[in-house]
Amino acid sequence: MKLATLKDRTRDGQLVVVSRDLTRCVSARPIAATLQAALDDWAHVGPRLADLAHDLELGALPSQRFHEHDALSPLPRAYQWADGSAYVNHVALVRRARGAEMPESFWTDPLVYQGGSDTFIGPRDPVRLGSEDWGIDLEAEVAVVTDDVPQGATREQAAAAIRLVMLVNDVSLRNLIPAELAKGFGFFQSKPSSAFSPAAVTPDELGPAWDGGKVRLPLLVSLNGKPFGRADAGVDMTFDFPALIAHAAKTRALGAGSIIGSGTVSNRDADGGPGKPITEGGVGYSCLAELRTVETIRDGQPKTPFLRYGDTVRIEMKDAKGHSIFGAIEQTVSPLVDPAEGEA
Amino acid sequence: MKLATLKDRTRDGQLVVVSRDLTRCVSARPIAATLQAALDDWAHVGPRLADLAHDLELGALPSQRFHEHDALSPLPRAYQWADGSAYVNHVALVRRARGAEMPESFWTDPLVYQGGSDTFIGPRDPVRLGSEDWGIDLEAEVAVVTDDVPQGATREQAAAAIRLVMLVNDVSLRNLIPAELAKGFGFFQSKPSSAFSPAAVTPDELGPAWDGGKVRLPLLVSLNGKPFGRADAGVDMTFDFPALIAHAAKTRALGAGSIIGSGTVSNRDADGGPGKPITEGGVGYSCLAELRTVETIRDGQPKTPFLRYGDTVRIEMKDAKGHSIFGAIEQTVSPLVDPAEGEA
Description:
The structure is a homodimer. Chain A is of the alpha+beta class. Helices cover 20% and strands 22% of the residues of chain A.
């Protein structure tokens, strides 16, 4: 089952069930008006939405055309957004470029930061930011949405609580990170609003690409229309989603609709070293910081700039037959405008 | 106007308007079913709730008894919980006890961490935690709830967006903090679910104690029935709420219903040094860590233990006439039980 949230001038949008090929959709309003409402009562609502999806696939009910640019993030706002850094290769690389040691424990103890979740951006809406000097970067990731997770959940409980899978652009402001982390309280201004893929899908939609803990498919990233990354989300993921969820739930319950991110997807090169650019036959990168890190290791300094106004990022994932699974996040970095003027 | 959220077996509870003396309440359902719904459309809903509050105060409509233990946190779950550390005296003290330097910039650049907001605890419900070894501490604070705040908001816009004021117990797990902060991504497991006062009140309810940016009244904290703190929330607050909100909104919009916390309220002693315990004529403390810090500075090591199962914390604020403004947070630290068994 694939779900999306259409813009309807409300804060939470309107829940729709989307066809497998992402061309048609049908309102879920008689069952649940919003995705959060569905997640709040998934045991009852989930099966009814699945029936609707079945009928939609059969063409057994009236449907409308689904346009990805009409979608908000599946949860336009959420109560919990916890983002991991599960591809430890990425962390090791970034530290190496800085000349900093990475503690051995990073390979055994998951790194998760608490994100802000009140104002997510739509998958085709501009990323509006007040300054290009902040070092604007994308971070292409996979995320899951959970049901309620009790405090102290086991890995098995965590795995059983995964309801939906989606893609993320975790926008990051690299030039604000060092000063913010030096203060010791983690990210805040350096992690502005994130965006999620048009569709959130149940794990069964991934078929054999879902192994119960991660998605074994390349995450396709392009910048201004050129391929930039195709790292496999199933490779080098040191902590899978059940591990990240259990970590997040160690001292607190997680509410239904919690979003747990993988962190920037990153693969080692075949020779064990840092990944190579796609133009050199590698799988490329899921954020500019990693490419800049590789450039720093190679040449002593980064060459590729961060994003500027007008730059466009696209993030997508395709199944074995080449069909888009979640639809595409495609966003242009734009200056901040008066919110009234900027409204679509 | 005073607002509260009654337990009704739903996730968001039922919004009620509460009388000024906290003895009576009336359902706000015909106007807004939940506090989040009210905040989502405050321009229209706020005045109608104020009319209801006026009629309740006059005894002009049927009302029911208000019991603080029937209340959830005013927002039982929220989309944004950003907690400052505005009483820089507190930060300076804690660092001093660790022998660490505090950067000068801490006096001019606000410290804010991103909290988790999906599962707040009720103000009279137990604080259930899986281990006493985590170093369980309270943090008594003041918080405000905002309307929508645009990215890049000025101090004036931030001040104008403050809708409600309430108290917080920002439960903290001190023994988990050092390892978590050393990882560089800020708090996560060390900041489990927080609790808020039974009532959230509009700033006008505070009369002259609200100066547009902070609450000029002592925050009363007791431990197991004994007075522990009465630091004045209007004293030594280096960054007031408009400053904290503008900081939080620098690179992102804040959604309606965002909660912004002050951080642990802390006053210097009259001689400029660390505050003294109440038993020694001082104003005491709003968390155990600060007392332990003072003990460490004085005696080389802390004497007072962190909270144990069975310990009870009470946090309250009274007006000039001695009436409770927000009702009391009163919570007993308790072992984790199966969520099904633990349900009230």
